[in-house]
Design a protein that fits this description.
Structural class: alpha/beta
Number of helices: 15
Strand order of the largest sheet: 4-15-14-13-10-6-7
Radius of gyration: 27 Å
Bound molecules: 4'-deoxy-4'-aminopyridoxal-5'-phosphate
Length: 519
Amino acid sequence: NGASVETNDLAEPYLLGWLASVGLDVEYVRGEGNTLYYRDSEGREIPVVDYAGGYGSLMLGHNHPEINAHAKSLLDGGIPVHAQFSRHPYANEVAQALNAILRRELGDDAEEYSAIFANTGAEAVEAAVKHAELDRRMRMDEAYAAASAQVSAAQAAGAGVGAAVVEALGLPAGAGIEVVADEITRRNDAVRQRTPLFLSLEGGFHGKLVGSVQLTHNEGYRAPFAALAAQARFVPRDRPEVLKEVVEAERAELLGLAVEDGTAVLVRHAAPVFCAFVLEPIQGEGGIRVIGREFAEEIQRVCAAVDCPVIVDEVQSGMGRSGSFFASSRVGLRGDYYALAKSLGGGIAKASVMLVRRSRYRREFELVHSSTFAKDAFSCHIALKVLELMEADGGRVYRLAAERGQALKDVFETLRTDFPDVVEDVRGEGLMLGLEFRDQTQSASQALRENAGTFGYLVAGYLLREHRVRTFPTASAVHTLRFEPSVYLTDEEIAQLETGLRDVCAILRAQDGERLLLP
Ligand code: PMP
């Protein structure tokens, strides 16, 4: 297939070989705004418009001049990047800034959120999950202790036992309080020891670490590692009735006793078996799918009824990409937790944070969770700069995201109108857009049929080669191309993309698949 890979490459040569097979094995030598440059065989810089946008980490583009200048001044000033276990006022400033944004978008009554810093998106998700589990266990222990105390009190009172209790517990007729107490303890121990349950959405993506990959729906990523961590139940998007069914099937209770007129009666306490519902307000890797307001409300209702915290994964949709800082605020979804990453680091730092609602916050978490690199001065100061840039001029960045996104979406809609036989769907909000092509598994073109499983990568290779446009399919839906450029997207850059996409659509209409392959 013409792939040429250095034989001594030890850094993922297999992946590189695969990229080479579709013409994506380019080395970029410089980045600026929405442009990446590679060198041709004569050493000249060739510009490429970057719609992959660092997979969502470049809301403000490559090497934003103010961010870079700030980074240089921090380093020139001898900033203590790593000063763990000391005062970190800049981390508090980031947390305060995020809280101010939350209050603006959710309403003034929004509760405060505490911040735990991390380095990557998956890490922020896992920190939220880990905190949720600490909180769940503490609630479970409290409920268990309360139930046990009731049982002990009934025993100490030498309470009698009614037939209803004996029957409800499936015990032999005439069983006394000691037998009842043993049976309740056995049942409560079993509930307490149950593995925590996670709820997530079909198509969801929450990272690829040991814990987070089990929340990621894509089977290829998840299944080989299922034995390593707790499993999630996946709920179909926009099917709230399934959510209710899952919750009904899994909910559990702890049993206690009350003594009435000298006789013990059963008391049922809801047991916190649900650790968290984790979801993206706009699914990224699942094909750019926006969660609807009604579904968001249903999730909120069902979760509240069983005291299951909601973790809103804004790793890709957040940081203004949707036209609001938090995409979830657009559909009225309020998280108990939020995860942010990607553009938080301004395209140069690795930074992420999870926010947890005060009423759920367990301060004990601070003593059991940390990372050498998290909450460092450099990434916090860069994050502050990013937030300052985003909030400037009454949120010009968010307005730009909405306006530039609409300009881009208009082009996609025109393509859909002109090529209904080729374009399946256009989705997304702001600068988080997806263009879905029709399935090619039954294509008249052998080349398209044979490559249907990697279709999006074929198109991406062609766009790069022929039109100097860089994009990729979403990770779990390869017929959908992703478009996540920075807010500085120009009309010329949009026009360049349109030319490329029209060319691709014409090729697909003609079912001339060979043309998409590497020459
Ligand atoms: N959550 C979402 C919604 C994401 O899109 C991603 C990355 N694509 C992650 C989590 C994981 O982030 P990271 O790659 O930084 O671990």
